[in-house]
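Hello forum,

I keep getting stuck at the same step: I have a sequence, I want structure tokens, and every attempt I make locally crashes halfway through. Rather than fight my setup again tonight, could one of you with a working pipeline run this one for me? It's a single chain of 211 residues.
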Amino acid sequence: MVPLPLFKFAALFVRHISKYGANWIKVQAHDHPKFRAVAARYGQTMHQINMRMAVTLLRDAAAERRAKEKAEAPTVKTEEQMRHDEAMKEKNAAKEKAEKKEASKSIWRRRFRPLPENKAVDLFADVIGDSFILLIASGLILYEYIRAKGKPDVNAEKIAELNEKLKELDQREIELEEAEKARQKRVETLEQALEEMRKASGKRRSLPFAS
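Reply #2:
Ran it on my machine without issues. Output:
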């Protein structure tokens, strides 16, 4: 009879309950005055970090510069204009890196427009609630890993048992081969003894005729 996976049912139940715990945290973030103040403050901090990361990832200063140069460039350039453009590109090559570094620094120092208090509280509550669910799931996975690691490996035990049986069979086969060799040796000894007895008997019979 296959045992019921009670731990898996319990883990599923705990994960389901953790969602209610996350929702309770979100409700308390709105209803509890002190918790709301903390949620609003750290929600604004999360908003600033999210905005800076989004702007840093999406911003492409080189593409903006190329688009601007393409928009401002004339349709037909003379040789003098081309030489002038090449000189300007070489002159501004060093400035581009410095400007790019300065732009990235200024993004992380920039203060974006803050969220309304309710939205900041929602943001903080969502992060904390999801973190609570993730923490519960991680704890269950870690417990399952430790629990599985402590259990004996059934497959390894079966493999070891089969290897032991194979060794016994090999040993039995060797013993049988040795017994067969010994039996064959005894048969050869008996045949040799019978042959010698036949020869001796033949000599005894030939002696009276010779006399």
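The chain has a mean pLDDT of 76. If your local run keeps crashing, start a new thread with the error log.
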